[in-house]
Amino acid sequence: MAVSQHIGHWIDGKEVAGTSGRKSIVWDPATGKAQAELDLASAEELDAAVALAQRSFVSWRETSLSRRSEIFFRFRELLDANKRELAAVLTSEHGKVLSDALGEVSRGLENVEYACGIPQLLKGEFSEQAATGVDVCSIRQPIGVVAGITPFNFPAMVPIWMLANAIACGNTFILKPSERDPSSSMFLARLLQRAGLPDGVLSVVHGDKVAVDAILHHPAIGAVSFVGSTPIARYIYETGTANGKRVQALGGAKNHMLVLPDADVNMAADAAISAGFGSAGERCMAISVVVAVGEVAEPLVAAISARLDRIKVGPGTDLDAEMGPLITREHRDRVASYIGLANAEGATVVRDGRQQKFEGDGFFLGASLLDHVTPDMQVYRDEIFGPVLAVLRVPDYESGLNVINQNEFANGVAIFTRDGGAARRFQRDANVGMVGINVAIPVPVAYHSFGGWKASLFGDVHMYGPEGVRFFTRAKVITSRWPDPATSKIDLGFPRNR
Ligand code: NAD
After folding, report:
1. Which atom of ligand 1 is nearest to the CA of 229?
2. What's the predicted TM-score (pTM) here?
3. pLDDT tens-digit profile of 262-313?
């Protein structure tokens, strides 16, 4: 297929064409047309990027904390000044609406701001006189060459989650972005270069399983940070750790929103709409199941259903659109197939997004609402990752909590209630990594850390924030004893008796 735009790798401060001969197509999801051809790296190309990163590490780890901080302050300013341009890149390859794309950039920006504080974040600990004449200090040092492998759904924010802390901590970083929307990574690399980051500290190597496997098996890569689906996260974790690497691998999700009978129904319905259908449901923190307790179910389903009529679906560039297309045709068709499945499994299809018709060949699908879904149904168990919201009715709080805690995934969860006691109990009871109280998408701010439990995270260190700094550094403890200068045979000018 002939396309005019070509995307190569970012190596040593410039875009270079790949040499493997393998390529993939980047689509415009709003039109269904191919918009670019992307080079896919071979193991040899990855190996060359690692060799460059190893050489660059020697001087980058010597770069002072104040200089690193200065570069990230400048990167922050450039990112802010260029956010609309970056948002447009996100919209053109991912499809999300521009307001959503701008929101993504803002959440990424927070992580850059956090990394600006690296001199403060890397302050070690010191114990004077741990024993007589003995001091002990703990410091954190960079790992060396580290890699990040990222998903399609946040092509700017997730790379920033990783690279800001990794690089500020003194590592050199190899980014393998999603091959479906690779341009925002190139955009970030160019901005970092303008901010003063030395060439070679960041490389962007595009690719598929070949590049990923080369990362997982490369002896010089010390740590791998991954975000993506659960089967791949498990594979990355098992393969990376088997090869002696430190790995954090964030996986898929099935996020519930528990609505108690005392909740404000309008507030809960608004939240369900934005958290269920924002970014076409392609968010790892999207709400995909509303768990309605007792008598709230009828008015809540009615309120959500009424709001579905008002969701405007269209190209992300249309400023009135609230929901864009899905990432690929295959993914759109897979998501759509769950609506038919729901019907066959005995759920009530309140709204069938397949009925909405769109002009052109974009990968659009209307919003769907499924009621009377039960935990044994496949539409409940699978991560659908699209604009399909399921409602599960339960008689009481305990049954709702049980459903949530028995789910394989445990990324985010929310409770909607006016009762502080119930909310407090839920935050203790829910076996989920991130909990929202009347907040449907509780993505932590950058100075906390992000991570789920169970099948939503393989490894034990969460992403970004304080845990991100921990992940990208290793601890060293130094115990020191020096003779008392007063006992020196050479006259140092110290008083002999104190
Ligand atoms: P994905 O798992 O298909 O791809 C993620 C990365 O892995 C990409 O870079 C891809 O090239 C690579 N990859 C894909 N198949 C591979 C294979 N067989 N071997 C080696 N590497 C492979 O995920 P996606 O479709 O790009 O993103 C959506 C998924 O990511 C959803 O499941 C979503 O829940 C999840 N996600 C999770 C979080 C979180 O924080 N937990 C955040 C964002 C997305």
Report:
1. 32
2. 0.97
3. 999 999 999 999 999 999 999 999 999 999 999 999 999 999 999 998 999 9
Report the Cα 408 to chain-centroid distance in Å: 19
Give domain limits for the chain: 5-251+456-478, 255-437
CA torsion 101→104→106→108, rounded to 10°?
-140
Q: Is the CB of 330 under 6 A from ligand 1?
A: no
CATH level 3 topology of 5-251+456-478: Aldehyde Dehydrogenase; Chain A, domain 1 (3.40.605)
Residue with tokens 């259903």: 305
State if residue 165 touches ligand 1 by the CB under 6 angstroms criterion: no
- Asked if residue 182 has its Cβ within 6 Å of ligand 1, the reply is no
Distances in Å between the Cα of 158 and the Cα atoms of 67, 176, 367 are 24, 11, 26
Residue nearest to atom 36 of ligand 1 (CA): 228
150 alpha carbon to ligand 1 midpoint, in Å? Answer: 7
Which atom of ligand 1 is nearest the CA belonging to 213? 20
Burial status of residue 54 (CB atoms within 10 A of its CB: 0-12, 13-18, 19 or more): middle
Task: Look up residue 21 and give its two tokens.
Answer: 């001969």
CATH superfamily name and code, 255-437: Aldehyde Dehydrogenase; Chain A, domain 2 (3.40.309.10)
CA 233 to centroid of ligand 1, rounded, Å: 7
CB 480 within 8 A of CB 138: no
The pLDDT tens digits of the residues spanning 303-343 come to 999 999 899 999 999 999 999 999 999 999 999 999 999 99
What are the tens digits of pLDDT across the range 218-259? Answer: 999 999 999 999 999 999 999 999 999 999 999 999 999 999
Enter the tokens of residue 238. 């098992």
Is the predicted pLDDT of residue 113 greater than 80, yes or no? yes
Q: Return the residue matching tokens 């600990």.
A: 125
Which is the closest atom of ligand 1 to the Cα of 411? 41
Ligand 1 probe mutation, 22, 40, 162, 208, most atoms within 8 A of CB: 208
At residue 498 the predicted structure's pLDDT band, cuts being 50, 70 and 90, is: low
CA 488 to centroid of ligand 1, rounded, Å? 63
Asked whether 178 lines ligand 1 (CB < 6 A), one says yes
For residue 461, give the nearest of 208, 161, 110 by alpha carbon: 161
What is the predicted pLDDT for the residue at 490? 87
